Amino acid sequence: MRRALRGAVAAALLATLLALPFAPASAADLRIVNGGFDGGLTGWSGSHSPGGVDAVVWDGRTTARITDADPAAAYGRESLPGLPATAGTRYTLYGEVWADSGTANLYLRFRDASGRLLTASASANASATGRQWNRVTASGVAPTGTATVSALIYSGVTDVGTAYWDEVLITRDVTDLGVQIESSVPNATTFAGGSAYALYTGTADTNPQLAVIDVAAEQVTRKITIPDTAATPTVGGWAAATATDGSVYLGTYPNSKLYRYVPGQSTVTDLGRAEGGYSFIWDLEPGADGKVYGGTYNDGRYFKYDSGAFTTIGSVPVVEGAQYVRSLAHDPAANATYLGTGTNAGLIRFDNVTGRVDRLLPDAYAHNSMVGGLTWTGGRLFAWIDRTLLVLRVVRQTDGSYAAVTDATITDVDLHHSPAREGKVWFVREGLLHSYDVDTRAVQATDVRPGLDVTGYTWADGTLVGLGAATDGTRIFKYDPANGRWSTRAVSGTPVLPAAINALGAGPDGKVYTGGYLTGGTGVYDPLRGDGDDDRPDTPTLNGLSQTDSLLAHNGLLYIGAYPSAKLYSYDPARPWPPTLRYTGGEAGDKADDCEPGKGPPPQDRPYALAGGPDGTVYMGTVPKYGKRSGALTIWKEGTAGRTVCVAPNQSVVSLAYAGGRLFGGTSTRGALGVDPVYAPGASAVLFSYDPADGGVRTYQLPLTAPKAVTALAEVDGELWGLAGGSLFTLDPARPAAITAKRLFPDPDYAAKPSMAWRDGRLLTVAQDPDHVYGTSGDQIFRIDKTSRALTVLLTVPGMEGLTVDGFGNLYYKVNERLYRLAVLGS
Prior knowledge:
Blueprint: H1 2-18, E1 26-27, E2 45-48, E3 53-58, E4 61-68, E5 75-78, E6 83-84, E7 90-101, E8 103-111, E9 117-120, E10 124-127, E11 133-141, E12 148-155, E13 161-172, E14 174-179, E15 182-183, E16 186-192, E17 195-200, E18 209-214, E19 219-225, E20 236-242, E21 248-253, E22 257-261, E23 269-273, E24 280-286, E25 292-297, E26 302-306, E27 309-312, E28 324-331, E29 336-342, E30 346-351, E31 357-359, E32 373-377, E33 380-385, E34 388-396, E35 402-410, E36 413-417, E37 424-429, E38 432-437, E39 443-445, E40 453-460, E41 463-470, E42 473-479, E43 486-490, E44 497-498, E45 501-506, E46 512-516, E47 522-525, E48 548-554, E49 557-562, E50 567-571, E51 580-584, E52 604-612, E53 618-624, E54 632-636, E55 643-645, E56 652-659, E57 662-668, E58 687-690, E59 697-700, E60 710-716, E61 719-724, E62 727-732, E63 735-743, H2 756-759, E64 762-766, E65 769-777, E66 780-785, E67 791-796, E68 801-805, E69 811-815, E70 818-822
Parallel strand pairs: 1-14
Antiparallel strand pairs: 2-5, 3-4, 4-13, 5-12, 6-12, 7-11, 7-13, 8-9, 8-10, 8-12, 14-70, 15-44, 16-17, 17-18, 18-19, 20-21, 21-22, 22-23, 24-25, 25-26, 26-27, 28-29, 29-30, 30-31, 32-33, 33-34, 34-35, 36-37, 37-38, 38-39, 40-41, 41-42, 42-43, 45-46, 46-47, 48-49, 49-50, 50-51, 52-53, 53-54, ...
């Protein structure tokens, strides 16, 4: 069904492109056979006068040398039989040439199905000036009747000289480069009858899958695609539970659907949307007699599914002010359910018989955003709050109410923990497996390092079994407490699904890097050198990072901003992956603060903005943790600990650029997820500057009416350019208060799509085009004449986000899981 949805998007894209001076996007790179001449002259046919071309090594590179000593002759080679081409499509050809003397020429050639030459593009010339490698470009639109396009390296009549050619590459005007990142790790796991049931997240274009995994054999025995409809697409899920009747239930997003799988069957059943609709089912818990309880975002609903019907339990939200019912645990003996809520953390006991609600969260955790995990086991309630595991005894008081007594507080613990067995609960702390003795309250470490992010535990004949995500995919972990034997092995046959692209940027090595949404992973694309398969990445996904929100090439390194906890990494492409963690914004600040007067920032979460200073400093702009409004600015430099400071209370920092000796930043009036109202009341987004010399921060009001966000900043020929909604503003960094603004587009509908207020616009310059600035707003890519400020919309694509540029001057953007290239030079 998802392919039908994708087809609808593709049809809309096609209609848009046909109305513009670009042809429909085509799949995968065009690759000229032997374009680098590593195979001599294979794939290049003789042209014009015989001879004159041979394969040689020049300047350490394999090249095609054209030697022309005859002013009455012409010499060349053409890449025949050519590549498939479409009439009306613009093609751009690139070649690297060393003109040792004279002039060298590069041509595009278009031929019909019989091989007849139709026309050649205007040539790109390179002279002997400089005696060095130069990149030359030829561009042209394929005429009517075109079937193929080819490249011609050439020395014409009247020309004499010697030229060396290498790296002849080609692109269409718009190219669908396909999937860049793959994931093979589960988001949710439950167990039943010797099998693990793991839910693998998809994308807006690819349905998620349920994998049935034989625990003993450590291999997948069945893969089932989760069905959906075009009106209510299912992207993934975080919730899985096994009911008392053995049925497996799955809770999904963004449609809050519940699915049931009966072990042994070949399909899952769509049970519909949880009452109320909304977007996420965050957790599921089995109750008595086949019932299943669940919690949702963003209406904070607690619901039951029983005998084919959904029922809301209690009020909506179940706790006043709660948007999340993030975690659940069920005590079957008392028929009571424990609910962990957010965005302001809450923990309640809900009596399913009487409807009584008792609040249990210790006061010390009231400043946290939510209770992220709950388990009732061994007669205790285990509550996970921001990597701290609380072990709570729930006691009935004389007045009939319930209260919690803290038996233990264990820090730096992974989210999931085991069911109790022989009085002990097992979990991973600081990378090592630990046990907690319920009676003695003792925490005991082992030397066992599971090496995976466990998404679910069970017991099998006295052996602890954990399944989850590792850098090489899904792994299964087994540990026998009786003898200490353990193993961790990759599960064979797991689903391999595309990951949606969340961020893209050019690296210092000239490659385009992409970061995956939710499941993480990093893709690497070598411009114009991809393969012909657009349904799989050109290079294996680099694993080990969570969701990437921003990328920056600076001083020969790639800096990566990752969610959660606003982590800053650096990566040297000349060294092995993974990158180095440099700073964690989630550990800065205090959960009780929100940049109130005299107080610092709250912990930060989403690093949407990165910029570099000339002294090597890296600046990171962030959105805070759940339930907070104040983002912050992080200043980090090699050899320093780094620091995070408030710059604009009640606003997030979503764009940065260094210009005129200062850092400039743009804010968004949207706070973190869970704040209500979404936008700071009465606030306008501002521009601010940070002076590296003294740490001074100044803010500047924009000459616009209540802008909600400044989503793009760029230094352009010594000026600062920015986007606030649909308006362009510019200023001289020496006089930042003198801001001029121009309306380009209607303001985006931030009410309908609040995420745009964090990451809507982009601005950048292209070295090969010194006369223009390029950018995005909404679904449009545009360019602006630097002198006249005249605007030209180049492309409109539904769902398009992001923008970066490669070393050839081509632009890149993404739609869901797919990367696209737009060739703008010569158009």
